[in-house]
Prior knowledge:
Layout: H1 11-26, E1 30-32, H2 34-43, E2 48-52, H3 63-71, E3 75-78, H4 81-87, E4 98-101, H5 105-122
Parallel strand pairs: 2-3
Antiparallel strand pairs: 1-4, 2-4
Amino acid sequence: MSVHVRFETPADLADAVYELVQTAAKNGAVKKGSNEVTKACERGNAKFIVLAEDVNPPELLAHIPMICDEKNIPYGYVPSQEFLAKEAGMPKGVKTASLALMDIGKAGQANFNSIVDQISKLTE
């Protein structure tokens, strides 16, 4: 497991996270890239953080889970930077190591609650 990955994410949970990203991206409520994500975490105004597992070097994201824990911001992992960027509506061929979902919206709230519940069970 990579240095920034704190728990194993089942495939169905990763799919649910991708779906949540799509919902938030439709509302334009997404910050992209590790610098923007770090700022959103430090300010405590992100609702959910998504980190790609295939980041190289993994140290790029190592600080983000620590900030999330400190600020009580839920976070989850997905396998692919490229697929994460695609689901966020970024241009083809672009990758993103991390995303901050700033607003979930009513359409994604049930999915969000389910994801946070599943992640809390993984980290117990």
